[in-house]
Specification:
Helix 1 packs across helix 2 (about 45-55). The protein is α/β, with parallel strands linked by helices. It has a 7-stranded mixed sheet, with helices on one face. Helices cover about 25% and strands about 20% of the residues.
């Protein structure tokens, strides 16, 4: 718990430092021509933790969409994000992409005698939070597909939930924190991707998070 609290504090301080730095003009900001309505935020691993915080902060409206890879949202940080908004304000619906591998240490704790039930994993919590945030009615219905060209070692499954905003859950079956190799293949194996016959998209009421 102390470790988790420490990380939450680090994320909050990084966000505060960044906000103050640009607000005071003490940072050198390059001048570029861009459409301010097409600004996106994305992060991998701890960077995804920062992206989760941005998407739940008062800066969320600045981003057209947010993507998180290899880091699910956990209950403690969700409560912290809401507290930062203040006044009982709930995060507004947001277009989000979340990518998680089932062999990632963040999916289920490793080396346990009994595997953590799916509904108790952080990716499952993440999906529930996003469906609630985007007002997806129960039971949730997703357009689900197997991505063509999956390697056979890892399979990529996408689930798109549409309501106020789109939430895309991408699950890398057997994918680790860094995929493909070395996490998901042996050192001497041929690592060239092989074609996997794609499964047609279907609409399902089944929820298969993370």
């Amino acid at each position: 718990m102390a470790h988790a609290n420490a990380r939450t504090t680090v994320y909050a301080r990084k966000l505060e430092l960044t906000t103050r730095t640009y607000a005071t003009g003490s940072a050198t900001v390059p001048h570029v021509k861009a459409d301010p309505t097409l600004v996106y935020a994305a992060g991998f691993s701890d960077g995804a933790g920062m992206a989760w915080q941005l998407s739940n902060s008062d800066l969320a409206a600045s981003f057209r969409g947010v993507a998180m890879v290899g880091k699910a949202l956990d209950p403690e940080k969700a409560r912290h994000h809401r507290a930062q908004l203040g006044g009982g304000v709930e995060p507004a619906p947001a277009p989000v992409v979340h990518v998680q591998g089932t062999a990632d240490r963040g999916f289920r704790p490793p080396l346990t005698q009994e595997e953590t039930p799916l509904e108790e994993t952080l990716p499952f919590f993440t999906v529930r939070e996003m469906l609630t945030r985007n007002n997806v009615p129960a039971p949730p219905v997703a357009s689900t597909s197997l991505v063509p060209g999956s390697t056979g070692v890892t399979e990529v499954v996408t689930q798109l939930f549409l309501r106020n905003e789109a939430f895309l859950q991408i699950t890398i079956v057997n994918g680790g924190h860094n995929w493909p190799p070395p996490t998901t293949s042996s050192g001497s194996a041929d690592r060239r991707p092989t074609s996997t016959r794609p499964s047609p998209s279907w609409t399902s009421g089944d929820l298969m998070p993370g």
